Amino acid sequence: MTETVKLKNITIVLNQPRYPENIGAAVRAMRNMGIDRLIVVDPRDYDLEKIRKMATHGCLDTVAAIQRQTDLKAALESFHYVIGTTARLGGQRRTGKPDATAEKIVSISQENQVAVVFGREDRGLSNEELRLCHELVHIPTAEFSSLNLAQAVMIMCYELFNACVPSKPAFTPRMAQRRELDAMLDQLRDILIRISYINPENPDYWMHHLRQFFTRIQARAREVSIIRGLIRQVDWYAEKRYRDGRRDERNRIMGKGAAECD
Fold first, then answer.
1. Oligomeric state and partners (predicted)?
2. In which domain, by residue range, is 70 found?
3. How many CB atoms lie within 10 A of CB 42?
4. How many domains does the chain have?
5. Which of 153, 141, 147, 137 is nearest to 97 (CA)?
6. Residues 139, 19: one domain?
7. Would you call 170 helix, strand, or coil by DSSP?
8. Do residues 9 and 79 both lie within one domain?
9. For residue 125, is it left (φ>0), alpha (ψ between -120 and 50) or beta?
10. Per-residue pLDDT of the chain (262 residues; tens, 9 = 90+)
11. d(CA 212, CA 196)
12. 223-239: string of b/e by CB count within 10 Å (b at 16+)?
């Protein structure tokens, strides 16, 4: 007996697609693989007639249910796990292959909402947008590499559709939503700047490894809440020590002045 990806918990996200035909073709690819949830972020051209034509008549219900968003970060806030697709390699990008990622998603998808994000046709996802993702996927090709957006969507959806693991799968609890994790990281960055642990001139550089760590460990919502509580306590204590120091210094100066008067 095996367990497969819970497809109803998978959402495809197209970030700033340029052509409505690609949106329609992506819908058709998704539906062939049993996935029917689509978010389109800030499309350049959202011509519904062209979208419907490429999606075909059998997918019109999915087209009608498309969620439109204006900002990628806001669109991903409610998801527990975010997969970003990228054609570029190197640098600090650690990427996996579609089949291995899909197999990993089997257990995660049972109790968590998963988003698979695709970037613009001409330049993909920016570095800042990739930081919103827990994991990056690269679709390997031969020397000639020019996948159409809908083709890339089909490959990822196909691998998710086929992925399975032998039972009994590992238990995966509800993970922190993307907005919960980002709020914690923003709070952590601010306190690390205040206590002079990281360089305030370039905090993103110093936060990169911490961001990778917290996304890699698949933090639970309760764990994120505990860490945020610890950060608030550190902030309170640092502020208290600062106020106590100012008071002691003021008392010292006043005491010195009184002694000189005597």
1. Homodimer.
2. 2-166
3. 16
4. 2
5. 137
6. yes
7. coil
8. yes
9. beta
10. 678 999 999 999 999 999 999 999 999 999 999 999 999 999 999 999 999 999 999 999 999 999 999 999 999 999 999 999 998 776 556 789 999 999 999 999 999 999 999 999 998 999 999 999 999 999 998 877 778 999 999 999 999 999 987 666 566 677 888 888 889 999 999 988 888 888 888 888 878 888 878 877 778 888 889 999 998 998 888 888 878 887 777 777 776 655 555 5
11. 21
12. bbeebeeebeeeeeeee
Q: Are residues 35 and 96 in the same domain?
A: yes
Edge-to-edge strand list for the sheet holding 135-137: 67-69, 38-41, 10-15, 114-118, 81-85, 135-137, 95-96
Q: Do residue 73 and residue 150 come from a single domain?
A: yes
Going by the DSSP 8-state scheme, the letter that residue 200 receives in this structure is T
Three-state DSSP at 261 gives helix
Give dist(CA 68, CA 66) in Å, integer. 6
Q: Would you say residue 125 lies in a domain?
A: yes
Q: Is residue 162 part of a domain?
A: yes
Show Cβ contacts of residue 223 under 8 Å, excluding neighbours closer than 6 positions.
176
First and final C-alpha spacing in the chain: 91
The whole-model pTM stands at 0.73
Residue 110 to residues 39, 81, 167: CA-CA distances in angstroms?
20, 12, 13
Q: Is residue 173 part of a domain?
A: no
